[in-house]
Amino acid sequence: MAQVYVSSILPSSVDKVWSVIRDFNGLPNWTDFVAESRIEQDRPADQIGSVRAFRLIDGGFIREQLLALSDYDYSFSYSILESPMGVENYIATVKLLPITDGNRTFMEWTAEFDCVPARESELVTHIGENVFLGGINCLKDRVKT
Questions:
Q1: What local confidence, expressed as pLDDT, does residue 144 receive?
Q2: DSSP states along 44-71
Q3: Tens digit of pLDDT for each residue in 87-124?
Q4: Average pLDDT across the chain, whole number
Q5: Is the separation of the CB atoms in 133 and 8 below 8 Å?
Q6: Taking burial as the number of CB atoms within 10 A of a residue's CB, which of 40, 123, 132, 142 is the most buried?
Q7: d(CA 15, CA 135)
Q8: Which of 75, 64, 73 is nearest to 127 (CA)?
């Protein structure tokens, strides 16, 4: 099973960061690589089991399902149901922790998945650098205090 781990420090309070990323349908609001997103079957975006279907700027189409959401822990987990990346059993978690020194936020984004062994290194790098770190860097710009 492949594993991805990315972490960073964001220049804003945990509550402000959480208010932006908590919306499971909000990727177009804080990333520059998601063109549009919708929650299927008109379910609430924060309801466990909700499925977001979104299109990337490059045309790729992805469907993900919300597995867990905790306002107490500032975290959520989701699975990929459909993706052009060639991953299976993909589970990712985003977690925030307050940094009280400077009113900043520690963010970690992790994933585990199965894939063809020959593509594991490529996919781990792509997800870690382009998706997770790319998303975090966009988020930093969005939440600057």
A1: 85
A2: -TTSTT-EEEEEETTS-EEEEEEEEEET
A3: 999 999 999 999 999 889 999 999 999 999 999 999 99
A4: 96
A5: yes
A6: 132
A7: 18
A8: 64
Distance CA 120, CA 126 (A): 10
The dihedrals phi and psi of 49, each to the nearest 5 degrees, come to 100, -15
According to the model, what pLDDT value does residue 145 have?
A: 60
Spatial separation of the C-alpha atoms in residues 127 and 101, rounded to whole Å: 30
pLDDT of residue 122: 96
Q: Two tokens at 82?
A: 């459909």
Domain extent at residue 120 = 2-143
- Enter the pTM of the model: 0.95
Q: What is the CATH number of the domain that holds 49?
A: 3.30.530.20
Residues 6+ apart with CB under 8 A from 121: none
Tally of structural domains, the chain: 1
Token output for 78: 């989701």
Question: How many CB atoms are located within 10 Å of the residue 64 CB?
Answer: 21
- As a whole number of angstroms, the distance between CA 58 and CA 41 comes to 25
Kindly state the helix (H) or strand (E) to which residue 97 belongs, with its residue range.
strand 88-99
Question: Is the distance from CB of 3 to CB of 124 less than 8 angstroms?
Answer: yes
